[in-house]
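Researcher: Re-running this chain for the archive, since the previous output was lost when a drive failed. Same request as before.
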Amino acid sequence: MTTARAAAALAEPVERVGRGWTAALALANGAIWVGWFGPLQILLASQAGDFAPGSGMSKETMLAWVTGAGAVVSLLANPFFGALSDRTTARRGRRTPWIVAGTAGGALSLLLLAGAGGPWTMTLGWCLVQLTLNAAFAAVTAAVPDRVPRLQRGAVGGWLGAAQILGVVGGTGLATAAGGIGPGYAACAVFTLVGVAPYVLRHEDLRLAPADRPPWSWRGFLAGFWLSPRRHPDLGWAWLTRFLMNLSNSLVLLYLLYYLRDRLHYADPDRGVLILTAVNGLTLMATVVTGGVWSDRVGRRKPFVVWSGVLMALATAALSGWQTWAGAIVASAVLGIGFGVFTSVDFALMTDVLPKALDRGKDLGVINVANALPQVAAPALAAPIVTYLGGYRVLYLVAAAVGLAGAVLVGRIRGVE
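Model: Regenerated structure tokens:
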């Protein structure tokens, strides 16, 4: 590794990345999402249904506890491993070692989860999946501000978003087609390993020079996780808007299987989840890349995020007022359109407000807490609403209001057009 290349690890990138690099990073990102969403959409819900009888908990409550515990782990793991990758001076670079270790650990954890014999081992397995895959995810997302110039980040974010939804659809499809809980977890584990291989094997990472690594102290390391909203107001508002939008989306997705089974009485709810996920994925794919490219060309971010959020809120409200299979199909399609634009442009907006190059991984990890924290908050909000406070109609109205608040607050970000 040359001195110039080592110094580039902390420089603002100016050279556009090629299609091969973008495709390989997107595939790695999608593979990680397969490892998350095969369990989240199908397998964990099925295991909760198996383990709930005799446990004293409903399947909804058990699923809420398991996913909530995993989300707490994710909440801590993402910024922690992002910060560790910022300080890594390995020969293979700052990010690649964590991508390799995280995906290998994630595959093993999925296999452990496949053999869970009760709610406690299911919870342990899911927490290990979140711990390991978040190590890989933190490194993958940090590679973008490391390597991609600002006016290409909307497009690259679009391809990462496209891979994300393909990962969601692919994970759901693998879990459904595998024919059982054990085979479903095994299929997701294998795909996660295979999907990261092209990026790891074909693309050289930027190495941090040992002289550029800051001195280590636990106090300084832990203090770095606090990003003051007073000192960095744009980052604070950007974090809050992402949290609210993701909370709205999490409230929609968490009980989708149970919504189809218990409210719509759909004959094959597993297949129904796959159909709705595929519809959502198709419309998302139609907007996720074009939205990011368009944002790069006009040099603006906020209008795209605002109007995509408004559209998502309207679609979520439709789930409350139009509780039929046709209504679910239409809402899934419209949600995909809005979330496609939001996914790519909001990612670019986040990278635009990062404070320091030395802390990109850690800062993006703190931002990614806005993805993980809704997984904790959503079960805490959704379980009592569904059980005691009006059911799915009220749940989706609350989700719509939360998403609309996120869209409105984007206007408080001042440093980005």
